[in-house]
# Entry
Amino acid sequence: MRMPHGLLCRDDGVVLPLVMGIISVLTVISVASFALASNALHETTRTQGETVAFQIANAGVDAALEQVYRSGFVEDNFPASADLSGGTYVVEVERLDNSEFQLTSVGTDATGFTETVVVRFFYINLWEMVFAAGTQESLTAGGGGITGNSNVTGPFYVRGTVNTNGAAYIHNGPWFVDGNVSAGGNTEIGSTTNPIQVYVSGSYNLTGNATDYLRNFSVAVPKLELPRLGADELLIAAGKAQAESIDNLIGTPEWSAGPNYEAEEGVQDPLAYDTIDPPNTAGFTREYARKDDVELHRFGYKYIGESSSPSEPRQGSSSLVIGPWSFGAWPGNGYPVDSTSNDDFAYDAATRTLYVEGTVFVDGPVTFTEHIRYRGRGTIVANGDVLIQGALHPDNTGATEAERRKMGPRHVLGIATPGNITVQGPTGNVPKPEPTDPPYHSLAMYAAETIAFTTNNYYVGSIVAGQINMGNNNVHLVTDPDLPEFLPDSLPGRDTPILTKGAWARQ
# Structure
């Protein structure tokens, strides 16, 4: 049966709108896809550019920190810049405090994207400060860290709990405490004229009449470790002492002021030390430091021990006493009066003058029995405990600060031991020192265990120890900022300043 013609469906009016609709949808999809692809490409390009710029900025950070670690912070070295294969960086370093710095590195990739990295870091020479960071509480004196009127002027680092009372003061700073602080009595932290930077990782409490004058306070305490003085380091020091006993140089070659006469030219026999004649002194006979046992010196007059190798740490038994008798040779005693030469290790008992240059090694304990002035720039490494019974400071200690500065800290005595150092001072009161007051002790001391002050004292120099024990005494510890420039050899950590990163941010 045929349908009527009017009832038949026509397709030509439907297909065209359908096709147009499909084309419109495809167009929208294409445009959206292109937009998404463009955005993705742009995002990828931006991410890639920022990543490259960030890597370049980090390269600037690494380069600047390496430069500071190798050469110290020199303001004229910054800002610094460099062209790399993928772009450039510009680095600036700003000193925030005596030991804290802020480094800003801006990296730019080849297409112009930039990233900024900001890093705070500490650059610390341990020998610029009073440093106590053993494995136990670092400052222990009965129930407190600093008791009585004990004081520190200069950079100060402590690991452990610090309790202060009496009229204690912490001046100049910075002061680092990797632990807790409880300040009582009339403690003064900083001063009205010179507020200090304080870093405390734990609690910080003031009680009683304690006051503080802070330039800034931070909980970001650098994690510093005590340098080692173990069997390997003792062996190195012993080797230096033996070699320097026959090199006919004053101290080490790095700072030799001229020749001396320790060994016969071309022979260099340590046993011939007592028979070698300095100029114009035919027949002169030297005494050894170990006066009663010459055989212990067959390895060199600066090496005191029963074997050519040191004993295990703190096990040495070849004790040395400095004070009762003279040994060695110096101007007017073996050398001409106007001579600038002297033996690397000598002691004039008549004038109580000790001559120390380079490295002296004692495989056992050392005792200083008298008030002694020293000359030279040397370190006594003792494989045993050290006892200082009298004053011990440079021969060029002047009456005024201006005179001391003029003469300079050329004479520096270092003492290092894997054990303990006990320092005895005057029996009377020691008031807060004035700039014109000469110190009772002026040294650079290292003890892997404890440095203990058994009486009142005024000490100028540096201390690096596991613990510092001041008891209930009136002890004034004052750092010398010029000391690191003149440090003698063989002090642990002498040639390895510490650089440690703090806060970090990407901008």
Remarks:
- Residues 136-145, 404-408 have pLDDT under 50 and may be disordered.
- The helical segments are 12-71, 231-244, 401-407.
